[in-house]
Amino acid sequence: MSEAGLVGGRARVGVIVPAAGSGVRLGEDSPKAFVDLGGSTILEHCVSGIAGAGIDAFVVVVVPAELVAHARELLPGVTVVPGGAHRSESVRAGLAACADADVILVHDAARPLTPPGVFRRVVDAVVAGHQAVVPGLPVADTLKRVVPGSTNAERVVDTVDREPLRAVSTPQGFTREALLRAHADNEGLATDDAGLAERCGIDVAVVPGDPLGFKITTQWDLRIARMLVS
Fold first, then answer.
1. DSSP 8
2. How far apart are CA 76 and CA 157, in angstroms?
3. Is the peptide bond preceding residue 148 cis, with omega within 30 degrees of 0?
């Protein structure tokens, strides 16, 4: 990051929170981000966690167009914009609202329990000179490569060495220039913004993540999250 990207020796940080997904795998009546988690929505918990991370960030939440007004009621003072049909389109909508940020984080709304230290590690690594940074954890399970498609039993091809592998989560951090470059192709779709960055030749660094940064995807995840919050 150049000195021009700093104000008073500090980076201007923007956080994009994509929350426009339907969350069909969760099996709830409302979109995932608006599901209750201990008296507040998952989205409210997520934004509260960002506010408590100590990174002095400008937050942009991206939700379905029909829920923009509701999200603004839940999150007074937070910028809320409508998202697109795909995650990448929603990130681009958030990026347009972060025009003044030097460092931009993209953080899944469905990871509401991510500890403050993860946010700080990602921001610090970008400010230190990395164009793209993700939090990651070593893989604990034994991994098998299989021939996919069988409905009963898939055939194992080999066992994958897990030593160099990392399970990555969010927030994923970028210099503004790197994220703009990663999303320059309006047709580019990805579930992972770092994947778009890799595709266009940007080096991605990994900093230590935290198990509490897990993603709420299924009813089991929601049950665990509710237990932790209570």
1. T
2. 52
3. no
Amino acid identity for residue 202 in this structure:
I
C-alpha 193/C-alpha 86 separation (Å) is: 12
Instruction: Map out the domains of the chain as residue ranges.
Output: 3-229
Q: Provide DSSP, 138-155.
A: E--S-EEEEETT-SS-PE
55 near 120, Cβ under 8 Å?
yes
SS3 label, residue 4 = helix
pLDDT of residue 6: 41
**Average pLDDT of the segment spanning 195-221:** 95
CA angle 44, 49, 51 (to 5 degrees): 95
151's CB contacts (< 8 A; 6+ apart) are none
**CATH code, 3-229:** 3.90.550.10
The proportion of the chain whose per-residue pLDDT surpasses 70, expressed as a percent, equals: 91
Residue closest to 83 by CA, chosen among 104, 56, 57, 109 = 109
Cα–Cα distance between 174 and 105 in angstroms, integer?
Answer: 6
Rounded Cα–Cα distance for residues 122 and 205 (Å): 9
Question: What's the CA gap between 199 and 212, in Å, rounded?
Answer: 28
The angle at the Cα of 59, spanning 130 to 103, to the nearest 5 degrees, equals 15
Per-position b or e across 77-103, b if 16+ CB within 10 A of its CB: ebbbbebbebbbbbbbbbbebbeebbb
DSSP for 62-87, written as a single string: EE-GGGHHHHHHHSTTSEEEE--SSH
